[in-house]
Specification:
With 145 residues, the chain is of the alpha+beta class. It has a single domain (11-144), classed as Nucleoside Triphosphate Pyrophosphohydrolase (Alpha-Beta Complex). It has 2 helices and 8 strands; from the N terminus they run ββββαββββα. Strands 1, 2, 3, 4, 5, 6, 7 and 8 form an 8-stranded mixed β-sheet that branches. Strand 6 and strand 7 form a beta hairpin. The longest helix is centred in the C-terminal third of the chain and has 16 residues, at 129-144. The radius of gyration is 15 Å and the shape is globular.
Length: 145
C-alpha cells in the first residue's frame, strides 16, 4: 500500500494544459493512476513549491514544453472509496493553462508519449470526462485573454 492510499488528507495534484494554436498537448501516462491513458500533464505539488511553479515544472518534466502566462482553469476532486465506504484515494487537482512558447513534445518523467492534438482528435482518445471539460474550459479561457 502506498502513502497515497487511505490518506489522512487530500493529495494536491497540479495539471498544466499547453496550447499551440487550437491544439492541446497531452501525455500518455506510464504509471498508475491511468497508466497507458492520455492525460493532462501534471503531478504532485512539492512542499514549498507554488502551484504555478509546480505546473511549469511538471509540464517541462513530462513533455519538454514551456508556456507563457498561466491562467487558473479548474479545481477537480477525485475520490475513490473502497467497498466499505472508506476513502482509498483523494486527489485535489488544480489545472492551469497557457500558450506554448518553446520546446517540442517529448516523453519524459512519468509519460511514455507526448504530443499536440487538434480539437477534432480529442473525442477519439477516451479521455476522462473531466479532462475533456477542463480542456474545453481552458481553450475558451485562453481565447478570452
Amino acid at each position: 500500500m502506498s502513502a497515497r492510499e487511505y490518506p489522512e488528507r487530500p493529495w494536491v495534484g497540479i495539471g498544466c494544459l499547453a496550447f499551440r494554436g487550437e491544439d492541446v498537448l497531452l501525455v500518455r501516462r506510464s504509471h498508475p493512476p491511468r497508466a497507458g491513458e492520455w492525460s493532462v500533464p501534471g503531478g504532485a505539488q512539492h512542499l514549498g513549491e507554488t502551484a504555478e511553479s509546480a505546473a511549469r515544472r511538471e509540464l517541462l518534466e513530462e513533455a519538454g514544453i514551456e508556456v507563457g502566462p498561466l491562467s487558473l482553469v479548474a479545481c477537480v476532486d477525485v475520490l475513490h472509496r473502497n467497498e466499505a465506504g472508506a476513502v482509498r484515494f483523494h486527489y485535489t487537482i488544480i489545472d492551469f493553462a497557457g500558450r506554448w512558447i518553446s520546446g517540442e513534445p517529448r516523453a519524459g518523467d512519468d509519460a511514455s508519449e507526448a504530443r499536440f492534438f487538434a480539437p477534432a482528435e480529442i473525442p477519439g482518445l477516451g479521455l476522462w470526462e473531466e479532462a475533456v471539460r477542463v480542456i474545453d474550459t481552458a481553450r475558451k479561457r485562453l481565447a478570452e485573454s
